[in-house]
Amino acid sequence: GDSVIQMQGQVTLSENDFLFINCTYSTTGYPTLFWYVQYSGEGPQLLLQVTTANNKGSSRGFEATYDKGTTSFHLQKTSVQEIDSAVYYCAMRDSGGSNAKLTFGKGTKLSVKS
Amino acid sequence: AQTIHQWPVAEIKAVGSPLSLGCTIKGKSSPNLYWYWQATGGTLQQLFYSITVGQVESVVQLNLSASRPKDDQFILSTEKLLLSHSGFYLCAWSRRDTGQLYFGEGSKLTVL
After folding, report:
1. A–B: how many Cβ contacts below 8 A?
2. Closest CA to A113 of A15, A22, A10
3. Of A42, A98, A105, the CB nearest to B105
4. B26 and B72 in contact (C-beta within 8 Å)?
5. What is the pLDDT of residues A49-102, one digit of tens each?
6. Pick from A42, B80, B85, B90: most CB atoms within 10 A?
7. Quick check: bond before B8 cis, omega within 30?
């Protein structure tokens, strides 16, 4: 079945540091890949969607790309701020069906210190 | 703009007691609706989805049920809570063209 692996459980950075979070995916279909951000006590918010390999998506200073060859996709930000502290989830949707079922990674908790 | 409202915000319930969580979406006609569950500190797992009134599909078996009595309403319930039901329950709707999911603020359930 479909799977998404997000290895980094926790990342601690200082303000203005570079952020890089990587996920790998496995599917037999044609995936659409997403990054969601969840602030404490809230529901996840869509941050980025990437549908075409090697194309970048960008939002709020974050960028995401995916590599079809290595079946990996990553999220990066050049200079993180304290307000970016949250849990970041990668997610994948397979191409078919009426169920927009997303398979989520385990999440990366980002703590940014000022 | 679409809004999604979940209720209650938080519940503390006893093992064996019933539960009902609700979700209403405004500003979107005939949405696909979903229930997700998140254990404390854990990832998100889809429980149910519905593409139309009266139709609900179960994705995992967790002794929970869901119903869609109106186009804009989705209900999650059980007759008897288990300790393992504790967690954060999230309702979501999706855009049919992109599959993007938009989540509500969630309902935190503690079962004692």
Report:
1. 57
2. A15
3. A42
4. yes
5. 887 766 778 888 999 988 888 899 999 999 999 999 999 999 998 766 667 678
6. B90
7. yes
What CA–CA distance (Å, rounded) separates B35 from A93?
A: 16
Query: Reduced to 3 states, what is the DSSP secondary structure of residue B85?
Result: helix
Distances in Å between the Cα of B77 and the Cα atoms of B35, B51, B70 are 11, 18, 16
- How many Å apart are CA B36 and CA A85, to the nearest integer? 23
Interface of A with B in 74-93 (CB under 8 A): 89, 93
Distance CA A8, CA A70 (A): 18
Q: Cα separations (Å) of A52 from A29, A57, B8, B58?
A: 14, 9, 39, 31
Residues of chain A contacting residue B100, judged by C-beta atoms under 8 Å apart: 34, 46, 49, 100
| In the predicted structure, residue A5 carries a pLDDT above the cut 90 | yes
* CB-side neighbour CA atoms (13 Å) of B101: 33
